[in-house]
Write a structure and sequence with these properties.
This protein has nine helices and four strands; from the N terminus they run ααααβαβαββααα.
Length: 205
């Protein structure tokens, strides 16, 4: 990557960080949106409003129930480089509802991890730098070294196990069906965040 491009990406990240929020502020925002029957994002359709309401319930559950095994806890707690995890999301995103609370649980274990949240539709320049197969897929975690401001890794929009499920299904059937999306939700519920935790621990190695 050329120096000019690196500088441009750092500037875009800095701009997004300036308007970022904590996970707690994001959760409060989602709850407020539910009370007002609204949603994040530039589109305010009834379907997206309903997804936001459903996702608030999901996040409440995961905020309370996500557990980390001791092996992962010790690896997270021993990480000694100050980094920022900048996560791009929206309240209506089904994958994000299962993943955001897990990211937060991991970040809470180590003061060296500063978790910040931004909304996709309000951060177009940032999103365009971190596309997945050309698409604005979320949630997307950007891991930034605080000392150099370099991007050292990314995660998302799904844990690697779920990504393989999605890619295999698309390869066989051409697109994701409503039935597959329901199966994916069931997988998230059964997995209880463990695949996401494993992928996040890999970022810290």
């Amino acid at each position: 990557m050329e120096l000019a491009e690196q500088t441009m990406i750092k500037d875009i990240i800095a701009t997004s960080l300036d308007q970022s929020m904590t996970y707690e502020a994001y959760r409060a925002l989602v709850q407020e949106l539910v009370e007002n029957q609204s949603t994040t994002g530039h589109e305010k359709t009834e379907a997206l409003v309903n997804y936001t309401m459903l996702n608030d319930i999901r996040m409440k559950r995961w905020d309370k129930t996500v557990k980390l095994i001791d092996e992962f806890k010790s690896k997270i707690e021993s990480y000694d480089k100050p980094v920022t995890w900048l996560v791009i999301t929206e309240s209506w995103c089904g994958d994000a509802a299962h993943i955001m609370p897990v990211i937060n649980k991991v970040a809470e274990l180590n003061d060296n991890i500063d978790l910040r949240v931004v909304l996709r539709d309000d951060n177009d320049a940032l999103m365009n730098e971190f596309l997945t197969n050309g698409g604005k897929a979320i949630p997307k975690l950007i891991m930034i070294d605080n000392s150099t401001e370099d991007v050292v890794n990314t995660f998302g929009p799904r844990p690697s196990v779920a990504t393989k499920m999605v890619n295999d299904y698309k390869a066989e059937y051409g697109k994701l069906t409503p039935e597959f999306k329901e199966d994916l939700q069931r997988w998230y519920n059964k997995d209880k965040g463990q695949s996401t935790i494993e992928d996040l621990v890999d970022l810290l190695v």
